[in-house]
Specification:
about 375 residues; alpha+beta; Hypothetical Oxidoreductase Yiak, Chain: A, domain 1; Ribosomal Protein S8, Chain: A, domain 1; Wheat Germ Agglutinin (Isolectin 2), domain 1; about 40% helix; 11 helices
Length: about 375
Amino acid sequence: MIADNRAAASAGISVGPNGDRTIGADRARSLTKAAFTEAGVPVAEAEQVADALVDTSLRGIDTHGLRLLPQYLDELATGVAKATARPTVVRDQGAGLLMDADGALGVLAGLSAAGLAAERARKFGVAAVGMRNSNHFGAASVYTRRLARQGLVGIAVTSAASRVAPYGGVEPLFGTNPISVAAGSEGEEFALDMATSQVCFGEVKQRSAQGRRLDEGWVTDHSGQATQDPDAAYALSPLGGYKGQGLAMAVTLLGAVLTGTAPDWQLAQVGEGDRGHSRGVGHLVLAIDPAAFAGEEQFTAGLADLLTTVRTAKPAAAKPVLAPGDPQRAYERTRGVRGIPLDARTADVLVELAGRLGAAGPTATSEEGSA
């Protein structure tokens, strides 16, 4: 353990008294960028993926942040994702485009779609970019918040391998199929990023490892009956019953059917793709320019009024009412100071990488007693 902690410290990872490991954002960016560069991703693109993963972890969305680094590196190593993919436009009708990701890392495919959507929205007022032949693209809010920071309204959905059974069904047919909508920036930001399932499968696996029961209504077993035993979980339950199923189907419609992509139940899970072939995930990114509607000034004022009205609503308990994105900004402030928590697998990958490459970074802040 002492050697492990010293190795962690030399990698810029802090080890707490209880063995908890954290890493500063700058160090995480440099190591993650180095990892993708070593895997053959061009430097500028490696930096983009590193920023996406680190920023997501800073915001407390751990399942879609740095924890994905080992999985994405595996995809590159097996050829599921191409390190030097070049997305191309398949069909262009001005405000509506279809692109082929060429098997790129999903993050790079999503950023490419968002960039093109922003450009076209400035011209047409609204733009929608569909992406096919892609891979897992992390947190959907990465793309919508990027559009929001440019003064646009961003909307993003993605197909995903099936984990969720339809309401009243047994077999998983849909992915967790997220929806993200974002507008504004900083404190005046609306940033919704939600799955259409009750919970992600990673949480089920974590509860199993911890020997903890699941919350009621999260999953069903092989017979389609609700269970709180994580080891008996067969399918995730849709958020809000039939309403969540409807949202999941809407995401499949937009992310898969509209882009000519295979439906969720035909997609391989992350880490289970066929060597040399992309997982064939589909995304849809939309950008809306307020200038084409109410106008920038009126939209900005209306957004501020919406957020203020919600945040100042009378709370039912001691905690204030929050708007979408508020909890994530709180995490970002805290983790910007205390560092990003790391799970064991991600910490091992970063320690091994730092030791092999000798990547420079901030000095470790571990206490001497824990190192």
